[in-house]
Amino acid sequence: MNSIISVSGLGKSYASGHVALHSVDLDIREGEIFALLGPNGAGKTTLISIICGIVSPSVGQVLVNGRDIISDYRQTRTDIGLVPQELHTDAFETVLDTVRFSRGLFGKARNDVYIEKLLRDLSLWDKRNAKIMELSGGMKRRVMIAKALSHEPRILFLDEPTAGVDVELRKDMWNMVRHLRDTGVTIILTTHYIEEAEEMADRVGVITKGRLLLVEENDALMRKLGTKTLTVHLNAPLAALPEALRSWDLTISEDQHDLDYRFDARGGQGSVPALMAALGEAGVGYHDLSTRQSSLEDIFVGLVHSGDAADALTTQGADA
User: Fold this and answer.
1) pLDDT average, residue stretch 150-162
2) At 48, phi and psi to the nearest 5?
3) 191 falls in which pLDDT band (50, 70, 90)?
4) Which residues form the ABC transporter domain (predicted)?
């Protein structure tokens, strides 16, 4: 698949000495949903702002559809739509006028057919004559998306698209983003909702302290870094591990009715039969087993808070 955005050696330093980005390399594929995860201050907004032409890089290059964002800024900005986290728009304008005006800012000819379709796709057509101030928070966010898409960009950046949105509307937004991707728009989103990335993204990037720790296919990330937990449901409470089981990475639950065993989801499942045999030899009876796959949130938290995250990923990349 072709890359529609290519970032090479991108860095951003400020006069204060703060380094917001450290030599970031990233390729975003045409037609994918790419989720950028990271804590506050990780560099997400700086990276997006540079690609969108809002902030100047200190070093490195960004190509959008093969064009340099600095030397060919007019075309690259036309290729991009940005939905910021903050809901800034004219409260006294109608939905229709706001979206039409945004299209005109990019020098696009008026196209009422396209604007009507856009508003219908975003469930805004019935609100077209309503003033922005009359809309709910969720509807205002849809208007921001309509504004960003008004000039028919090939790429859409969504910065925290469901922040402050209730669960039901969040799912509607997920469906809308998938629909946009199906129409050929490349979607890049930042989010604090781990389940959002896990639910929607084709690929996930994790950034912290200005460094891009990894970029992986969603499923591959789960396979590469995920762990599974096997829970053994015991026939009788177990106060302490028998001597024969102490070499295993086992944890007794608080009520003493379960044993938890964590193993590598990539290949560690072969140890499970050996554990079952060891339980039998130790006289520990059980009546059921269950497993739980680690979530993207488990992986994310582990990466961001691990002091050797970068080294660990380098090692795992070499093993892959």
Assistant:
1) 90
2) -65, -45
3) confident
4) 5-234
Overall size of the chain counted in residues: 320
Average pLDDT score, the chain: 85
Q: pLDDT tens digits, residue range 19-65?
A: 999 999 999 999 999 999 887 788 998 999 999 999 999 999 999 99
Q: Cβ(62)–Cβ(9) under 8 Å?
A: no
Cα–Cα distances (Å) from 308 to 189, 311, 315, in that order, read 26, 5, 11
Query: Domains, the chain, ranges and CATH?
Result: 3-222 (3.40.50.300), 227-293 (3.30.70)
